[in-house]
Structures
1.
Amino acid sequence: MTEQPQSKEIAFPRLLDRAMRILAQRDHSEAELRKKLQQSVQRAAFIQQNEAEIITDAQLDKVIGWCQENGWLNEARFVERFIQSRSRKGYGPQRIRLELGQKGIARPEIDTAMEACEIDWSACAAQLAERKFGLPLPTEWKAKAKVQRFLQAKGFFMEDIQSVFRNFDD
């Protein structure tokens, strides 16, 4: 009787250790953590030139549940910190919403967090425009269009961009 080599499942403590190492660096969304855990197992197998260990959905759910129960994984905290971080880096609400969606955050959760964040997006757009183009902001059409394109690429709404020029003209 010959035994076929069976792919081995990764042990819960090892998977939990990997999850805690990932979460110790920064906050993650649940979807992001799942993806990184899968990638870490595949990467470790590639480096060691072994067959990749299998992570079952039940194991992932157990690790995610443990991390949530013990406060290591908190989606609301992740979303709040992500919005604050990206707004400080000069990104607008549209771009931030898009990035959160890409990280697996549900639209209602994003909407709630964006309303609760109390960021003055018009002021952020004005500060960014001043930092990039200096004062006074351009008044001729071609230069104004350049500022508008820059702010749109950063994810600001057109109403916030227009308020920059309205407030500057006053």
2.
Amino acid sequence: MSLVTETLDYDGGRQVTAYVPPAPPSAIVFAGDGQLITSWGDVLEAAGQSRTMIIGAHRPDDETLRLHEYSPGSPGAFAFDPERFAAHERFFTHDVPRWARSRFGVALPAGRTAVCGVSASAELALAMGLRHPGMYGAIFCASPGAGYRPPAVLPGAGCRPPGTLPRAYFVAGLQEPFFRENAIRWADALRHAGADVVMTERAGSHGDAFWKQEFPLMTAWAFGR
């Protein structure tokens, strides 16, 4: 399994890692918690998905900063840091894709591009997918936290034609009721807004192997085999 890690300028130096598939990429997944999710390339190869690249931005060591970067927050939830979130959003949606283009020559249309996250970075995936639908055609969301909840009006809903919300694939564990409820809440909201949504429940607790096991099912659903 081929992994390439480099350090970009954001926040005094932030690492990004690319899983480089054995065949020329025909699909790409951008991810938060990048040091974890890029290590899942082996399950893609085992599933015969040899043309999906993963680009992961590493999380900060400080958990509070991670939450501030990954969630725009919601009224009545935690008090997040809008400036920190906005800075990371620019990094994630501009600097990281630019690195993928310059380093690997990979730039694919939204229909072949997904954004992925687990737990807090699942909130990042939701926020980036909804705020940048021209970049990401699909959202992969495993066990999201509750700092970012569905707003009364989804971002950009008033200016989108029907059916143009990103597709969304959720998974949560039966033994993690808090995160399962968050996933169901988002799945219901997006489905109600007209999005193509999958909601899967697996045996497991927060952080269990079902996240990794579900990943090739997510990519197959979004990109085919």
3.
Amino acid sequence: MNRFFYDSFQQYLSTKGVKKVNFMLKSNETLSRRILEEKVIEQIHIINEVHKVSCGFNGYLRKRINNHTCKLIEDDKIQLKKLRRSLEKIKDNGPIDRVEEIVLERGDKILARGEKVIDTIMDNGYMELVERSMDNVEICLTNVDFDNLGKGETIEIVNFDDIAYNMVEMDCYYFLVKLKRKGFKVNFNRCIDEFCELEGLGKNSKIFIRALLSYPYEFIKIYEKYKKNKKNWNEEEYIRRLLNGIKEDEISLI
């Protein structure tokens, strides 16, 4: 089989009919829950089409793409270890402010939720999913939101920068978690089932995506910013965002 050279993966995709566009045209219509869900299902079909032309790539790239296989799970494990250490320290020394009071009050439950997510993933064929992904040379667009991916006469993409080797399940997760964070009410189980059927994926892939969508990212993310003093927020702002994070994280699919 001949192997071809390309400047970038964007150039390769252009040979498959994928078009680079500057922006996605947006509709100002107010979407009912039913219409929104149908648009989500339609987007899942477009994501699958991207995978069909991306995965199995065996050419040479002058501008290489990153390999993010396993990255999110390993990052989550590190996050949970840090949260456990912080929680133990607060328990030993007592909270120094109202932010730590909230962490002390909610931390054990959030930690247990995160650990349940990781245990569920590891106990349901995670390494086999990783092996399959590597064997099939699976590639994700990563940014598969409505603002970056669409389809007119052909597949259209605004930004190719986040393309990476990764399990195809991750594109489904990246898409649905954005909807979840924005508070959109869709049937996540239906969306996951539709994606896995299109991709020819089995039960463990469904469990994997559902588990990731159940991870308490928002609370942990805000607390990490507080620990690192990354934002110029006062105590009240951190508290507001932590409580909002708890609300955003409350949906669990496992």
4.
Amino acid sequence: MGADLAIELEEHVNGNGRHGALVDALSHVESDEAKDEVEAVDEAGLGAVIESMLLASGAPVPLARLVDALEGPDRREVAAALRALGASYEREGRGLRLVYVAGGYQLRSAPEHARWVRRLLGGRPPRLSRPLLETLAIVAYRQPCTRPEIEAIRGVDADAVLASLVERRLIRILGRKDAPGRPILYGTTKDFLEVFDLPDVQALPPLGELGDGAEALVARAEAAAGTSGVSDATAAPADDPPPDPGRDD
């Protein structure tokens, strides 16, 4: 609010032309607002601020985004605060866990509290059928891939299954393959990483170790069902510490 407007307002209210008190009050307000804008987060309160940010977000937040939003602490300081926050949840037996999933950090309910969370939310989250899991496994391990390639592996039509996976936001359309007919290319999404508790697609178990990709996803889906208080994804095992916050991808 400008000084001229303050003068006019004071004169209108009091009718005596005295405006010093109001101008001073408005100046203090403007000064406080400016102070709030530039106030830095102190080291002691950094963990609490990050905790609030992650809780408000719900979705995984990359390290780089946290650093940008905090406007002060550098990557090393934010990473250290994340490590301390995750360790405090474990040490104090809190009901939250800090996990690194889908390229970011997220607060989730402790897995040992899953049955109570499920009662509150009204049962277990929807399960994926066998055809959905098999198709999802093919996309996950062979992405980007096309419907004809998926159908060649499964031996059945995949049109309806792919549509269902897209609707569930587990896979997405990446573009079209430079081949006759320009078939659609499919790949997994960040929601897929969250549901199956993966930091990125490179963390998928090697097929050589597990044999059947669908079986691997079945095992993860069984472990994931109903253990998160913020999404349908699973929380990390209690004895699995948060990954190194030095990542920001």
